[in-house]
Design goal:
three-stranded antiparallel sheet; globular
Length: 222
């Protein structure tokens, strides 16, 4: 097994779990995965073990592997953890960010805003691209906290949170776009209290929207 083959298989499978191509609870049979991903059984076992350690896959005694289930309680737990990490990192970032950080943040918001406006207009857009820009904006906002460990943990939590948005209908349209713009303005103004309040509300609104879709049994389109 080469490192590149492992990494390629890992990224593909992880992405398929996060973006809902492999839905929660689906059994992950090695022979099926071997055909789909073109990797050997030993490689797939190692990939699945890594995803199990990340909480995206579960190991079933004597039954192999399955995509981790989702629940309202888990989403709320992830949202609380995200706020715990992101709000503190945001404060540190706003206090220490330089002009280069400001430029990066404006650019990250521009990319996100463009695709949000296209989606609001009803254009067919790649949902993975939308969420990549969403993640990029939120990571850029906190990256001036200057902690690689915090950034790494935030990415893991954000990805788990993101899976809920991919499984259920969670694009909130103009409301979410306005929240992102308000966050940008508060960050550039270095208004820590306002930015933290806006971010907490933004996350809470996203959770409420996902829970409503979860309760209604709505699944996001492929």
């Amino acid at each position: 097994m080469t490192t590149s083959l492992f990494q390629q298989t890992y990224l593909r499978l992880r992405g398929d779990v996060i973006f809902g191509k492999l839905p929660p609870g689906q059994r992950l049979r090695l022979e099926d995965l071997k055909e789909t991903y073109g990797a050997s059984v030993p490689t797939l076992r190692e990939v699945l073990n890594r995803l199990t350690s990340e909480g995206l896959v579960v190991s079933e005694d004597q039954r192999g592997f399955a995509v981790a289930p989702i629940s309202a309680e888990n989403l709320q737990e992830l949202a609380a953890l995200r706020k715990l990490i992101e709000l503190d990192a945001l404060a540190k970032s706003l206090r220490s960010g330089d002009v280069a950080w400001e430029s990066d943040l404006v650019a990250a918001h521009h990319k996100l805003s463009r695709i949000e406006q296209r989606m609001i207009a009803g254009e067919a857009c790649d949902r993975s691209e939308w969420k990549r820009y969403d993640f990029g904006f939120h990571q850029t906002m906190i990256k001036a906290c200057r902690s690689a460990e915090v950034m790494a943990v935030h990415q893991v939590v954000f990805d788990k949170y993101l899976r809920y948005q991919m499984v259920y209908l969670t694009f909130r349209g103009a409301v979410a776009a306005a929240e992102h713009k308000a966050l940008l303005d508060a960050a550039l103004a270095r208004d820590v209290d306002l930015a933290q309040s806006l971010l907490a509300t933004h996350i809470d609104h996203g959770v409420a929207h996902a829970l409503a879709a979860h309760a209604a049994g709505h699944k996001a389109p492929a």
